[in-house]
Amino acid sequence: MNEIPEASEGIEMVPVGYIENDYLEPVYNEEVYSKVSKIVLKKEFTDGLYRIEDFEKLYILFYFNKSKGYKLIHRRHYDGEISGVFASRSPYRPNGIGLTIVELLKVEGNVLHVKGLDAINGTPVLDIKPYIKETEEKDEGAAD
Q1: What is the pLDDT of residues 94-124, one digit of tens each?
Q2: Is residue 78, in this structure, part of any structural domain at all?
Q3: Which of 131, 112, 95 is CA-nearest to residue 18?
Q4: pTM for the whole thing?
Q5: Residue 85 within a domain
Q6: DSSP states of the chain as a string?
Q7: 102 lies in which domain range?
Q8: Which of 20, 41, 112, 130 could serve as 45's disulfide partner, Cβ 3.0–4.6 Å?
């Protein structure tokens, strides 16, 4: 049987890169989804981009480094409803991890040009994963 780690154990992560765009403050703004941002990977991770152009969309996991504290219950920005933090996209989260699906526009060396990234300039990027439509949008009525 697997042991569950104690809650006090830390997890160490190192950013693979950083975001560059015109958004300097964490303010809710729908227009961010139509803007272009750059994800600048650290040079040592450039080889990890090999064949990333095979995908139109990517998941970007990032760290809300400017968000301080969190509330378990709050009002969601997008519909005004009261919900728990795990039923929202709030940047004020216990672990401050953000996730967004972006459109990949082009790759130049260690720089990804993407559209739809809802993170601010300087945000640390933790990971990048391909969005695979066939995997993500399986027919729920299909038998396993």
Answers
A1: 999 999 999 999 999 999 999 999 899 999 9
A2: yes
A3: 112
A4: 0.84
A5: yes
A6: -PPPPPTT-------SEEEESS--S----GGGGGSEEEEEE-GGGGGGGTTGGG-SEEEEEEE-TT-----SEEE-TTT--EEEGGGS--S--SS-EEEEEEEEEEEETTEEEEE-----TTPEEEEEEE--HHHHT--TTS--
A7: 17-132
A8: 41
